[in-house]
């Protein structure tokens, strides 16, 4: 399609600090972005050429010894990257600034920058990342991980030299209590959020900034970008957030009421990194007294949250293992964000629920909000981007986004998408909404009749249009097969994919310990899109039970690939109807459990109860001959852990799924076609 923005949409000249003019976008934009083209079409090629071609300035000047003093006196440390001429002299012209605030220590970011921009090594790494492809071999998972380098995410995460050379300033700040910054790490707490706003205000007032500020980041820095945006600081003009989160509890901390093995591992890494001093200015730090203040702060909080996490796991007496106000304070208020926001996610990311949740909660017109979701995990975000039928690289999208909203360039990025997804089992597509248009609520019932497709499982059952007409019980025991599964890859943020297809594409090993229920093969390509809920009628011989669930695409050769997953401990089954999602016919599509100490329910021994397992929203297509499968497990270690008091309640348990015509078990989802 060919388009030109209406006069009302044309960016007007803006004034920054001291009345300096900001980007005006005076040139009209004509584009040729085909409707539904995930590559961006001709515009996408222009965005890429702008990033890969000659930049406005040949070099950058980096100041790694910048001090920002917060309103409470705590001194944060930052790196400022500015454009420079061919002699390395800093350009005095003020430009928009892109801010990244993260806890992973600027020492690590500097090391990454030096490696990726080393004269020979850097180019070789980028070339190898783009060209080595182990698809279909034992190296498939490993090369998927290495392709992230050519996908551009490290430019969003760290120092983006090309972006700065094109006429931006970049500011990277160590979160308080981490890296070289003083204070106590709050893990996204209220004081840390106030820091973000004060950082934006400080940046906007500097001589090298024209008054316009953008926020960018990956993971933690994406979350605090969303947090800062919901405070609506006046200088903030746009956000580019890769794999952020809007519900930390349900995404990762206590999914289904159960802690994740990822959290203690991640806390340990950040706590270790915060003890590494920045070597860029050691003598000056000592003379200024910064080293002493930094050391005192580290001694006061040597391992932030580790002891409370351990105490909560052992005793269940710490509120941070429940959905507590501690988390309410930390979840971004996405519906308050007003600036244009570009979000990137993945179906099997640590923050899988937020991949689409953030976009849905943004209260702005499509175009001002954009969403790209890939079929991957946390560490491999951007892998394959820039390919023939894929979205542009993340650094290309970031540059286009900020050019549009910070400089006023009419480059067509607001016509991209707005919903671009890699459909599981299919290809990259762009469309107007998520879920996809044309899907409608469907219901499939769990049936004990054999499907003939899962004889390897603990039980081979069926998914059918009608509930069972008789009573039966199917027993299932906890085991450790979840350690070789997509659950394991998800909880390790994607790292386990290097170990082979059993960790990503084929769940048959894990299914040996589960109850499987499978449909007949579909006769036409069938789209599944949106939220899902699995209602189960279950019982246990103990006073607690753990239920883990996956929904899979089963190929004609028997390969069973997980599309989405979920879990719930029986005591956390209480539903919050006001926060749950229902289909137009009243069917429960997304169960929102309270997950609070006060709302835990007793689990009667050997008495059936109803639970609703909320599954991560997804988008997939079943090709003709493929089947849909539901797998039900009594555990999935280490994806879902059990706190010791609940483990004691569940000791010696025998869990069973009760198929009862009066209380049927069924999957509710949205799909096209007929089942």
TrEMBL record:
Gene3D superfamilies: alpha/beta hydrolase (3.40.50.1820), Galactose-binding domain-like (2.60.120.260). Its EC number is 3.1.1.-. This is Serine esterase. Keywords: Hydrolase. The lineage of its organism: Bacteria, Bacillati, Actinomycetota, Actinomycetes, Mycobacteriales. InterPro entries: AB_hydrolase_fold, CocE/Ser_esterase, Galactose-bd-like_sf, Xaa-Pro-like_dom, Xaa-Pro_dipept_C, Xaa-Pro_dipeptidyl-ppase/CocE. GO terms for molecular function: dipeptidyl-peptidase activity. Pfam families: Peptidase_S15 (PF02129), PepX_C (PF08530). The keyword Hydrolase applies. It is an enzyme of class 3 (hydrolase). Residues 1-45 are annotated as: Disordered. Residues 399-668 form the Xaa-Pro dipeptidyl-peptidase C-terminal domain. The keyword DNA repair does not apply. It comes from the Bacteria.
């Amino acid at each position: 399609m060919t388009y030109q923005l209406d006069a009302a949409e044309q960016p007007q000249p803006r004034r920054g600090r001291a009345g300096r003019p900001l980007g005006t976008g005076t040139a009209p934009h004509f584009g040729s972005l085909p409707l539904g083209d995930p590559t961006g079409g001709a515009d996408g090629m222009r965005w890429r050429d702008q990033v890969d071609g000659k930049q406005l300035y040949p070099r950058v000047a980096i100041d790694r010894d910048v001090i920002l003093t917060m309103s409470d006196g705590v001194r944060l440390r930052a790196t400022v990257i500015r454009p420079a001429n061919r002699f390395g002299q800093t350009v005095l012209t003020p430009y928009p600034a892109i801010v990244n605030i993260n806890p992973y220590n600027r020492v690590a970011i500097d090391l990454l920058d030096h490696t990726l921009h080393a004269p020979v090594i850097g180019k070789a790494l980028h070339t190898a990342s783009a060209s080595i492809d182990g698809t279909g071999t034992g190296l498939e998972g490993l090369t998927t991980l290495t392709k992230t380098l050519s996908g551009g995410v490290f430019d969003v995460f760290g120092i983006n030299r090309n972006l700065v050379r094109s006429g931006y300033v970049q500011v990277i700040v160590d979160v308080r209590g981490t890296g070289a910054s003083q204070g106590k790490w709050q893990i996204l707490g209220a004081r840390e959020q106030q820091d973000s706003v004060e950082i934006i205000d400080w940046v906007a007032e500097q001589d090298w900034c024209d008054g316009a500020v953008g926020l960018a980041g990956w993971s933690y820095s994406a979350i605090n970008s969303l947090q800062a945006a919901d405070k609506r600081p006046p200088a903030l003009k746009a956000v580019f957030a890769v794999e952020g989160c809007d519900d930390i509890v349900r995404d990762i901390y206590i999914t289904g009421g159960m802690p994740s093995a990822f959290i203690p591992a991640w806390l340990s890494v950040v706590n270790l990194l915060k003890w590494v001093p920045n070597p860029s200015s050691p003598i000056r730090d000592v003379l200024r007294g910064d080293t002493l203040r930094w050391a005192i702060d580290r001694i006061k909080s040597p391992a932030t949250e580790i002891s409370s996490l351990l105490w909560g796991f052992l005793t269940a007496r710490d509120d941070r293992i429940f959905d507590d106000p501690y988390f309410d304070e930390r979840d971004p208020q996405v519906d308050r964000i007003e600036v244009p926001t570009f979000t990137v996610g993945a179906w099997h990311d640590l923050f899988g629920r937020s991949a689409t949740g953030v976009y849905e909660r943004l209260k702005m017109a499509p175009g001002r909000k954009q969403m790209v979701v890939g079929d991957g995990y946390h560490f491999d975000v951007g892998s394959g981007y820039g390919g023939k039928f894929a979205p542009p690289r993340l650094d290309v999208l970031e540059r286009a986004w900020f050019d549009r909203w910070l400089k006023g360039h009419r480059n067509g990025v607001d016509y991209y998408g707005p919903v671009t997804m890699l459909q599981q089992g299919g290809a990259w597509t762009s469309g107007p909404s998520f879920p996809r248009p044309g899907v409608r609520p469907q219901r499939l019932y769990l049936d004990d009749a054999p499907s003939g497709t899962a004889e390897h499982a603990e039980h081979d059952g069926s998914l059918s249009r009608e509930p069972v007409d008789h009573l039966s019980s199917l027993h299932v025991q906890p085991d450790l097969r979840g350690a070789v599964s997509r659950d394991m890859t998800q909880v390790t943020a994607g790292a386990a994919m290097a170990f082979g297809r059993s960790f990503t594409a084929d769940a048959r090993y894990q299914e040996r310990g589960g109850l499987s229920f499978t449909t007949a093969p579909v006769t036409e390509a069938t789209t599944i899109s949106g939220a899902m809920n699995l209602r189960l009628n279950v019982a246990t011989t103990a006073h607690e039970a753990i239920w883990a669930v996956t929904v899979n695409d089963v190929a004609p050769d028997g390969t069973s690939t997980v599309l989405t997953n979920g879990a719930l401990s029986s005591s956390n089954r209480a539903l919050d109807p006001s926060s749950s999602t229902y289909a137009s016919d009243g069917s429960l599509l997304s169960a929102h459990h309270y997950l609070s100490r006060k709302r835990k329910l007793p689990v009667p021994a050997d008495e059936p109860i109803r639970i609703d397992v909320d599954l991560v929203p997804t988008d997939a297509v079943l090709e003709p001959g493929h089947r849909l499968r539901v797998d039900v497990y009594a555990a999935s270690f280490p994806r879902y852990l059990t706190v010791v008091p609940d483990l004691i309640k569940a000791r010696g348990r025998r869990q069973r799924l009760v198929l009862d015509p009066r209380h049927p078990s069924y999957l509710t989802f949205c799909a096209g076609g007929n089942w």
